[in-house]
Amino acid sequence: MAEIKEENFKNKLVKTALLALIIFLSPALTRSVNAASLYFSPSSGSFAVGSKFTVVIYVSTTDQAMNAASGVVSYSSDKLELVTLSKNGSVFNLWVAEPSFSQSAGTINFEGIVMNPGYTGANGKLVTATFKVKSDGPVQLRFNSASVLANNGIGTNILNKMGSAQFNAVSEEPAAPKPTTPPAAETPKTETKPVQPAKETTTTEPAAAGVPPLPEIISSSHPDQDKWYNATQAKFNWSLPPGVTAVSLLLGESPNAIPTVIYTPPVAEKVIDNLTDGTWYFSVRFKNSAGWGETARYRLKVDTTPPSDFTIKFVSGQAPTDIRPIVTFTTTDNLSGIDFYKIRVINGLSVEGVEESQNSNLYMLSPQSPGKKTLFVQAFDKAGNYTTNIADFEVKGLEAPILTKYPRELIEGKNFAVEGQTIPNAQVTIWLKREDSNTALGKTTSDGTGRFSLNYTKDSVAGLYKLWAEAQDQLGQRTYPSAEYDLKINPGNTFKLPLWAYNTLLALAVLGVLGFLAILTGRLGKRAVFYRGAVNRQARRANIAFTYLRNSAKRFIRLLESAGRKRRLTKEEKIILANVKKDLLDVETAIKKDARLFKRN
User: Which domain holds residue 153?
Assistant: First the structure.
């Protein structure tokens, strides 16, 4: 009894320990599920100016299968030139948009889909970029925006980490030191990060006479001050008038701030990295011997955050019978605002069409054929960021047609007819498929009982085909495709014309010789009494000639009969075969009759 109690105590102790372990590990397990990351490989290194190096963008999703991924990558275009962008070896098997890049903006765009069952793994290659180093200095690759959608039917964004890459571009030979003079009031914090409005000077006193003119600021990275951008690196330049001895700069949130970071000697350009979202003002003013001039300001509108996640809803459910399903997919963007939606319908491995819409409420799709499809919707904000979602749906079609009469095998160039049954008073399309190409044989209309027929009068081409039919009623609703029926079109005999000419001439020659021999034999029989000796000689010769021609005719007959066992004889071949047999029999009968008369005489 004591041993049993001890055993029960041990079991309870083990169960308690396991429960405690599960409770302890559950937060970590919860955090790890449905997590995906995007990263670069390699993510660091040094490369010489003029050399090339390759960076691969990978996805890692080990806990849940991925269905789609997209991203916008920025790189330092002043130091790198993107030479090639390759999708070889990618886990994507359908590209929503071909991978592309902009050298001027320094961005890479990719967007693809992995069909069912999706991708799961830690090293899923997406795209490969090859760069050429243009100039020395630090180089960065980072994601401006990205998404990884789960293969769970609702397209949940499971991306929780976006990596970056830091490289160092170095000169092949030691570069000469550049003369620099530290600005009097410059600090690293002031140059690289926006200054809070509370610390900005907002004095707007008029400039004294003789001071430099108002600077004209130009930005190659953010050229339109009224437009939103998702670039986090801003590039500015301006022209320095004669006599300018110093330049004062500032980046802040106030449109009235006076710049305080002084550069002596003056600079004519500035690059600012790691901009955060919001509206910023870049201020510049000049100084000469007469003092400081007026301040010029350039507005930046930065938005790197994609629109909020959204859902796709079908008004009639996800199995509509209407060929133009109505859907809604509303979302918001807190900064730049929603610009437009891009809609794609994917059928198998093909994209049926790309549409754009500014309206997301009760959007009607273009006419759809019956079958299972995937709706791919992207919401773009005014800075070019986007959020993607997908939804599967199926358009219910009418009952498929049935082909009741069609050829199974024919010779190329021959016409044929197709008959079938479908819905009444419908437009019927007959399709013929060879390899990867579909050809519409023609269209016809079914009668009040649903019967239809189509005569194909064009020259058919040899090959193995699939034949099927589709129909559409007067309201535009389509049927499912009918079953596919096999059709074999055999090649015509390219040497048939010269062969037939030879066969025809041979048959005529045989018939002519046999007729001549028959006439000759008859005449010789009548005069056999007077010319028996000569006739015997001629008869022997005629018999030899007749035997030779008879054997030739029989070989010709065997040739056609052998061909008929291997393939179906044409109508012309059958007629010639029958005629040759009949004529040969008639001539042999006539010769035998003449021979009997000759013997009696």
Answer: 36-170
